[in-house]
Design brief:
511 residues, alpha+beta, Dipeptide-binding Protein, domain 1, D-Maltodextrin-Binding Protein, domain 2, Dipeptide-binding Protein, domain 3, 3 domains, seven-stranded mixed beta sheet, six-stranded mixed beta sheet, 16 helices, globular
Length: 511
């Protein structure tokens, strides 16, 4: 029979019958705790935080990125290699991959994406990369000025967005602002529509190289209010809701058909003192900063806001990062806090004005304000929408206290570079010895010596109380009854649902 002959010839030729791949079906909806700004569509503007990757993992793709079971999984690059002298890194691109507009992904796009990158870590990356060379259409080489053990950590993890690739020809045609309005990527989902402050709609890219997504349409709705997100989950208007804290998390656990899904990302949050470098400010006195830290009952905040799933910490570096130093915990000691304030010349306390924060974390900051008030440090909460907060923080405009945090992956060096070294994307100042040690460790190829240098930096940060670390928060989420696979927790340390092509709805939820 003709079909049998054709099948035999195909097998003899080394091929196999193509498997039928089910077309994507159904819609999955998220109630997201923040407003999604257009900057989240743009890898070049990624700050040293994880929030934009909520969108980037869907719209775009990277040469290398964290995936289930692999912290540096080959993606747009099917392979990479480093020279023995540590001066060159070669990436071989996966053949046949195209952007959503049909343009092929080439080495020119990789070079272009790196050169236009201006987000977290950009200054450091560009100061250490001598050149990006297009060897041929599917082969790109990064040449470093000197060996740098952290190149792949800064480049190939969401510590930055530098390895996420955009189409050169399209960006040059529409410009930076046009790209944010109609982004084109190489990810598992393509852009459909965006209503600022309301929702983002994406549709499956059936030609995605890794696999055809199971879910046809993804909808992300901006719902800043916790109770409204929970109500939408109960009514079936949302399938996954992010950031459900405190009593509302307990309510998810008690509601039949709903699942409370805690995620433990590489996430730390802390209180920061931008005025510690101003000799006229109370915060220039280490005793005052220590008093503020001792005034906070972290255990109580963890129980109230994260149902005890978070972890107490005294370091802005997550414990799961390489080169993490286990700083001694600050005890809850309001009596000693008052004594320190008196020794520093503030027996009746003082007016700290305000604590600026991402509005999502205003409840945590309200608790901090109450603890500070109890020892005489008076302040109010200034909550800002996330995009506005990030923008102001990067522009270093906050004058008083700041609740800061990051869930970006990396290691101790990436976290320190962004927040504790002079010139870091969210660092308001620095100390010469810390800066010097950071430069020294960046060039150190001996892992033990490097660990010692990074430990010393973290010890100095702790002794000087540069920060008042609060917690490694748990990220509590609600999952509805239609969902078979939410993607939460599939990638170790990642905050959100991912990878999106692995999501599944239950058969009963499909059309």
């Amino acid at each position: 029979m003709r079909w049998q002959v054709a099948l035999s010839l195909l097998i003899l030729a080394g091929g196999a019958p193509a498997r039928a791949v089910a077309a994507p079906e159904g819609q999955m909806t998220w109630a997201v705790h923040v407003s999604l700004p257009p900057t989240f569509f743009e890898p070049a503007e990624t700050p040293s935080v994880i929030s934009p990757f909520m969108v980037l993992y869907a719209l775009h793709d990277a040469l290398v990125k964290p995936m289930p079971g692999n912290a540096m999984a080959p993606s747009l690059a099917e392979s990479w290699s480093a020279a023995k002298n540590g001066l060159t890194y070669d990436f071989v691109l996966r053949k046949g991959v195209r952007f959503h507009n049909g343009d092929p992904v080439t080495a020119e796009d990789v070079k272009f994406s790196f050169e236009r990158y201006r987000g977290g870590g950009a200054t450091l990356l560009k100061s250490r990369v001598a050149a990006v060379e297009v060897v041929d259409a599917s082969h790109v080489r990064f040449r470093l000025k000197q060996p740098w053990p952290d190149f792949m950590t800064f480049y190939a993890t969401p510590a930055t967005g530098a390895a996420w690739i955009v189409p050169k020809k399209y960006v040059e045609k529409v410009g930076d602002e046009g790209f944010k309005k109609a982004p084109v990527g190489a990810g598992p989902y393509r852009f459909v529509s965006f209503t600022p402050g309301v929702e983002l709609v994406l549709e499956a890219n059936e030609a995605y190289w890794r696999k055809t997504p199971s879910v046809k349409r993804l909808v992300f709705k901006s719902v800043p209010d916790d109770s409204t997100r929970l109500a939408q989950l109960k009514r079936g208007e949302a399938d996954v809701v992010y950031s459900i804290r405190g009593p509302l998390g307990d309510e998810v656990r008690r509601t039949p058909g709903l699942i409370l899904k805690p995620v433990s990302p590489t996430f730390t949050e802390w209180l920061f003192f931008p005025e510690q470098w101003d000799p006229k400010s109370p915060w220039a006195d280490q005793r005052v900063r220590l008093a503020a830290s001792l005034a906070i009952d972290r255990k109580a905040i963890n129980e109230a806001e994260y149902l005890g799933f978070g972890k107490l910490t005294a370091n802005i570096v997550p414990r799961d990062f390489a080169f993490f130093w286990p700083a001694p915990l600050y005890p809850y000691d309001p009596a000693r806090a008052k004594r320190l304030l008196a020794e520093a010349g503030y027996p009746r306390g003082f007016d700290a004005v305000e604590i600026s924060c991402d509005l999502v974390y205003a409840p945590v900051v309200e608790a901090v304000v109450n603890y500070l008030q109890a020892v005489g440090i008076r302040a109010r909460v200034r909550g800002l929408e996330r995009a506005a907060f990030y923008k102001m923080d990067q522009e270093k405009v906050f004058k008083h206290l700041v609740r800061s945090g990051s869930a970006a992956p990396g290691n101790a060096a990436t976290r320190i570079e962004a927040f504790a070294v002079s010139g870091g994307i969210r660092a308001y100042g620095g100390y010469p010895d810390v800066d010097g040690l950071y430069r020294e460790q960046a060039n150190e190829l001996d892992p033990k010596r490097r660990e010692s240098l990074l430990f010393k930096i973290q010890q100095l940060m702790h002794e000087r109380v540069m920060f008042a670390p609060l917690l490694e928060p748990a990220f509590l989420n609600g999952v509805g009854p239609r969902v078979e696979e939410s993607g939460l927790g599939l990638i170790v340390g990642h905050l959100y649902s991912a990878p999106y092509e692995d999501l599944k709805l239950k058969p009963s939820a499909r059309p």
